[in-house]
Design a protein that fits this description.
Layout lengths: L4 H11 L6 E2 L7 H14 L1 E5 L5 H15 L2 E6 L2 E5 L13
Parallel strand pairs: 1-2
Antiparallel strand pairs: 2-4, 3-4
Helix pairs in contact: 2-3
Length: 98
């Protein structure tokens, strides 16, 4: 699932007004968090996640774990907040530009 730069820009504009749906605590990214994120992606397709504290390498590891477990793509990453997208093939919610 490769997104074009135009599609990424469109998704970033949609994500601007979103509030984080998933908040990571001290334990960081776990299997339970990945399961909840997968459910949120099924419902919303575009989800903001607020990462737990730590340095940049730790946040990158959390993002890699979450995207790997859920099959999602990173749309935007600013500080401790990351925007993830995964298309719901059965019931698409967002119409992406070409």
């Amino acid at each position: 699932m490769s997104l074009s730069p135009t599609q990424r820009r469109y998704l970033r504009s949609l994500a601007h007004d979103l509030r984080p749906v998933i908040l990571l605590g001290n334990k960081g990214a776990t299997e339970a968090v990945a399961k909840e994120l997968a459910q949120a992606l099924d419902i919303h397709e575009l989800v903001k996640v607020k990462l737990s504290g730590g340095d940049k390498d730790e946040r990158q590891a959390q993002i890699a774990f979450l995207t790997g477990q859920t099959g999602s793509e990173t749309i935007q990453e600013i500080g401790h907040v990351v925007v993830l997208f995964r298309r719901n093939e059965q019931d698409p919610k967002l119409a992406l530009p070409r």
